[in-house]
Amino acid sequence: MRFLISEPPAVTITLHLHNVLRQQTPAGLSSPASLTLPAGTTLAGLLARLQITFPADALLLVVNRRTVGPEQILQEGDTVHLMPALAGGD
Amino acid sequence: MTDTFFSIWRVNVRSQTFVREPAPASWERLGGRALLARILVDEVPPTCDALGPHNKLIFAPGLLVGHMLSSCDRISIGGKSPMTGGAKESNAGGRTGLQLARLGVRALILEDQPQTDDWWVLHLSAQGARFDPADGLAGLGVYAAAPILTERYGQDAAIALIGPGGEMLMHAAGIQNLDKDGAPSRIAARGGMGAVMATKRLKAIVIDGGSGDKPPIADQKAFNAARKAYNKALLGHPQTTVYREYGTAAVARMCQAFGVLPTRNFSAGEFEGLEGLSAETLRQYLTTRKGCDPSHACMAGCAIQSSNIYVTADGQTTVSPVEYETIGLMGSNLGIADLDAVARMNAVVNDLGLDTIEVGAALGVAADAGLMAFGDGARGLELVEEIRAGTALGRVLGNGAAVTGQVFGVKRVPAVKGQAMSAYDPRALKGTGVTYATSPQGADHTCGLTIRAKIDHLGTEGQVALSRGLQFRTAGFDSLGACMFASFGFNADPAVVPALLKARYGWDADEGFVDWIGRESVRLERQFNRLAGLTPADDRLPEWMTREPLPPTHAVFDVPDADLDAIFDF
Description:
The complex is a heterodimer of chains A (about 90) and B (about 575). Helix content of chain A is about 10%, strand content about 30%. Chain A has one helix spanning about 45-50; strands at about 10-15, 35-40, 60-65, 65, 80-85. Chain A has one domain: Roll (Ubiquitin-like (UB roll)), CATH 3.10.20.30. Chain A is globular. Chain A has about 90 residues and is mainly beta. Chain A is built from one helix and five strands; from the N terminus they run ββαβββ. Chain B folds into three domains: about 5-210, Aldehyde ferredoxin oxidoreductase, N-terminal domain (Aldehyde Ferredoxin Oxidoreductase,  A, domain 1); about 240-425, Aldehyde Ferredoxin Oxidoreductase Protein, subunit A, domain 2; about 430-490 and about 510-570, Aldehyde Ferredoxin Oxidoreductase Protein, subunit A, domain 3. Chain B has helices spanning about 30-45, 95-100, 140-155, 165, 195-200, 220-235, 240-245, 250-260, 280-290, 325-330, 340-350, 355-370, 375-390, 390-400, 400-410, 430-440, 465-480, 485-490, 495-505, 515-530, 560-565, and strands spanning about 5-10, 15-20, 55-60, 75-80, 85-90, 105-110, 120-125, 130-135, 160, 175-180, 185-190, 200-205, 295, 305-310, 320, 415, 420. Chain B has a six-stranded mixed beta sheet with strand order 2-1-6-3-4-5, sandwiched between helices. In chain B, strand 1 (about 5-10) and strand 2 form a beta hairpin. In chain B, helix 1 packs parallel to helix 20. The radius of gyration of chain B is 22 Å and the shape is globular. The interface of A and B includes residues 55 and 69 of A.
């Protein structure tokens, strides 16, 4: 009998971290970064994996230029921006 | 309960006479932007010439001004705008609001026009108002004029002054105000109020707040408790730290992420040179260069400190502040990826007393006309120096993006009601596009910026309601004298504003007060605009934005006209 052993399916994303979030992720993670994650990873899962302490409800989660929710499942090739929700100035 | 501390100060600049009078009952619970709108409707003929004797220049501190409550001492300055032809309120930080409040000024109303071309300084103190000749000040930039004025009137006075741009009646002229450290850096920039001040022949207004008193507080204990709750919410908010460390420049990367960063005269929403303009780069400069301050408060008592003092690498230029809107309009919008180049133009435009948003947008249009190459910061600096010199080209640029487009035959002009857009392309940020189109103030992000909202900015659904709510909320904060970032403290606990008002004035205000007074502001401004001749045709983005796709999202502005027209059906 032969067993087919395969790697778990994975997706690769490009991650951009904004301002203070660069100080809150595992040391050595630069921005932008290419990350390979298990298929089915949500944005909430990504935040947990990055150990970001910034309150999630004060963040904007932007995937492929659209604001999305933490339940969004990441897809191969996604461009993800994680940013504090700011507004402009004078 | 009638507030007897505050009164209306009415100055006739033609007869050089002054009266103090109680506020009419209908003005009593209004301040800042809402009071301005009320005075415009009650006293200024809507069809008057904005640069003529029937227009009035009004200074109105917000309702919470006078107590060094963090981020809540802003001054609203307004009148009929020569730029939009409608109601204008432009607000600024610095000392002006605080010191007017300490003189008991609910509103300062400047009326009429002198018959001669002499320039004057209006001096206000507890003793009243007087006019001094503005000897040696005419023609000076604000950086040269401010030290002369503080030498004459003391280091502690508040000063509101105009630069050469105002003196030349440019529609992009604002009114500069001294910050807490005495620098003339806090400009009520938008809509041409500097030109209106020039028609009153006032180079400067000096306010000796030290001769007055702190405004009374009906219940000091309750006020202290409300202040404590507000400060706790403000300082505990995660965004406060971001603003203190990175300032508003952090918005540049946000805009890049959404594809709304104005690039090469609004022809794209993404700029390949972002890293040269980013908040991270700015912070690196601010924390390593001599003379810089990465976290500067523009008003005494401000806990956020989102402003900065920037010095170029060669040490030759110091400017405060370098803000996102300037970075967007004078950086990416001109194809310039160098913060020093932006800072040099910023410094000149500040010195001229002009609006960096308007001039940046005008330069973008000028670049489209072939007057400068995108990316050429040296040429950009030459062009703003043309404004100082008062050449024909300089005067065109100093009158803003719309005039520049008309003169040079450029159709891609990012303006509404004649006023340039802030640094957010509305095609891919549609709620802000609704604000630009329908705000009575013309295109202005401070009237309802939607970028923080958790909404699909590329879709049309929900954008009108989002914009409407934010337009009311921001007008409400403008009426309190609160910086837009104070909202992080106020929104955390809706009971704080009513508690502060109750403690300060003894009024019973409910938790809907901010939205109520904001709504009243917008209603009155729209009433004024309608009588001034503005129509639904003025509540539109430029038509090219509905046809020309914006790379990289390829979005066009497609919120239906009927929805724009119905936004304020209340």
